[in-house]
Amino acid sequence: MTTRYRLEETTPGPQWDAFVEASPNGTIFSLSAYLAAVRQPSRLYWCLNGNERRAAVAVTESADGSCAVLHDFVIHNGILFAPPANKQNRSTVLSERFEIAVDVAAALSRRYARVELALSPQVADIRPFLWHNYGRDDAPHYAAEVRYTAYASLEGFAQAAAPEDVPLFPEISYSRRQEVRKALKTGVRTTEDATPEDLSAFYALTMGRQGITVEAERLDELRDLAAAVLAGGFGRLFATRTPEGELAAMALFGMDSKRAYYLFGAGDPHLRNTPCGTAVLWDAFGELARAGMTEVDLEGVNSPRRGWFKLSFGADILPYYQLVKDGPEPPSAEA
User: Fold this and answer.
1) Contact 33, 225 (CB under 8 A)
2) DSSP H or E stretch at residue 320
3) Domain 155-293: CATH superfamily, name plus number
4) Architecture of the domain spanning 6-147+320-330
5) Is residue 91 left, alpha or beta, with left meaning phi > 0 and alpha meaning psi from -120 to 50?
6) pLDDT digits (tens, 9 = 90+) for 192-247
7) Alpha carbon of 34 to those of 39, 251, 256, 316: distances in Å?
8) b/e 51-69 (16+ beta carbons within 10 angstroms → b)
9) Would the pTM count as exceeding 0.90?
């Protein structure tokens, strides 16, 4: 098969970030500053047709660079398509993106012994990956796992004088509505005066209550990532306190040109029966809407406990794909 598109390694910076922001499936998780704050090597590629950039590819790598691997804090990566060119209709766009994905699947398989990708929900067609080395038993294949996230609309939050003025409010669960009202009635306050250190400490407490011990290195990475998105101006850390002033819950959001992302949430287990865990998200939605955000990715509903809580905010479920290719290409396929 003739290869029309080729990968060319590039570097992070303004040109890369402009492409990510313009891409219909680009996300915060491929921005230069975000990847720089993650303690995992990353590699960036242009996908070129001649000299024209028709897509980009972002991966995180193993320490020796032999594998493209997933990272817990990089929720989406892989292919980032360019916006449609002038005069491209829907059929042409879909055809071009299919061809791009065919060549990207092959190029990554040649470069890495193992490939792990987590595509954004906007990449719906994974046939080029599933059909890589189609019909061959002597060559590796990509396998797909369906994952889920949830998007909540922020319509009406910016202008709302009361929760009932927000179109999302009647769509959230009864208990969530009661918690929102209780927070307002009792004087729960949400501010932005907590620190990344506070978030890291609360995250350890939250995971500990679930019987999960988080390694100190991962907590430090979370703290540094929070600090980086806040310092870079594309993150906001909200903190909710009880009427008595006790810090009870926190939520870190990242932002790009398309939406906000609920990156991390944590709370004091001793105050989990207060409405603060609900208020920190509801109040954050209002502030994010006033900053121009139109939707928020609640970032993963892939466990029963987290899925139940996030979906109780009336969000829409969206599938996305994690892809894994395990094993090198046979010598005849290597470029």
Assistant:
1) no
2) strand 316-326
3) Gcn5-related N-acetyltransferase (GNAT) (3.40.630.30)
4) 3-Layer(aba) Sandwich (3.40)
5) alpha
6) 999 999 999 999 998 988 888 999 999 999 999 999 999 999 999 999 999 999 99
7) 10, 17, 11, 26
8) eeebbbbbbbbeeeeebbb
9) yes
